[in-house]
Amino acid sequence: MKHPHWWTLDVEAPFTIGPRELPGRVWTASGCFAYGLTGHDIAAQDIDSPYAGIGAVVTKTVTPQPRPGNPMPRLVEMPVGAINSIGLENVGFEAFIAETLPALAELAVPTVVSLAATRPEEFGSMVAELHAAGRDMPTWHGVELNLSCPNVAEGGHDFGSSPETVAACVAAARSHLPDRALIAKLTPNVARVAPLAAAAAEAGCDAIAAINTVVGLDVDLKTGRPVLPRRFGGFSGAGIRPIALAKVDEIVREVGIPVVGIGGIDTAEDALKFFALGCVAIQVGTAQMRDPFAAARIVQDLRRAES
Ligand SMILES: Cc1cc2nc3c(=O)[nH]c(=O)nc-3n(C[C@H](O)[C@H](O)[C@H](O)COP(=O)(O)O)c2cc1C
Question: N or C, which terminus of the chain has less Cβ within 10 Å?
Answer without folding.
Answer: C
